Amino acid sequence: MNFMKKTRIIRLVVIAIFLFLIRLYVVQGFKTFGKSMEPTYMDGSFIFVDKLTYKVRTPRRGEVIVFRTKEKPYLYFEKRVLGLAGEKIEIKDGNLFVNDKQEVEEYLSEKNSWDVEPFVVRQGCVFVAGDNRSMPHKFHLLTQVDIKNIIGRVIGGK
């Protein structure tokens, strides 16, 4: 093999390793499935997830995250953070209350009638829900997500 071919192969290997490391540690693409985040992200959208931010800080209310289930094979979900560890959460007539104070959810496109009894978010967790609240909450994944299962925050896509 001549010198030019060896150089080309080395460049390709270095680029492949670089791209693999970026995907593993910095940013990753996901395709969304389902309608729970509409109209913010439509079914079949391609999104990018920042994997670095939560290495230096915890999630904030209002951020959209991608997280995985605890059990293998992992399932990945995209949801909005509504509550943080230690906060009292309640949803009355579709209105979110955090520590008895009503939160404005500007990202919701329509009024809903959800009712979720008050509870306190466990330590090391966040409470999440989708933006599409037009269907009854019993059909949504309303859950507390362990922070260690969060892949990252959504930073782009549509």
Structural account:
- By secondary structure, this protein is α+β, with helices and mostly antiparallel strands.
- It has a single domain (about 30-155), classed as Umud Fragment, subunit A.
- The chain is about 15% helix and about 35% strand.
- It has 2 helices and 11 strands, in the order αββαβββββββββ.
- The strands form 2 sheets. A 7-stranded antiparallel beta sheet has the order 1-2-11-3-4-9-10. The chain has a 4-stranded antiparallel beta sheet with strand order 7-6-5-8, with no helix packed on it.
- The protein is elongated.
- The N and C termini lie far apart (about 45 Å).
Keywords:
158 residues; Umud Fragment, subunit A; seven-stranded antiparallel sheet; four-stranded antiparallel sheet; 2 helices
Strand and helix map with partners:
Layout: H1 3-25, E1 27-31, E2 46-50, H2 53-56, E3 64-68, E4 76-84, E5 88-92, E6 95-98, E7 101-102, E8 116-120, E9 125-129, E10 143-146, E11 150-157
Antiparallel strand pairs: 1-2, 2-11, 3-4, 3-11, 4-9, 5-6, 5-8, 6-7, 9-10
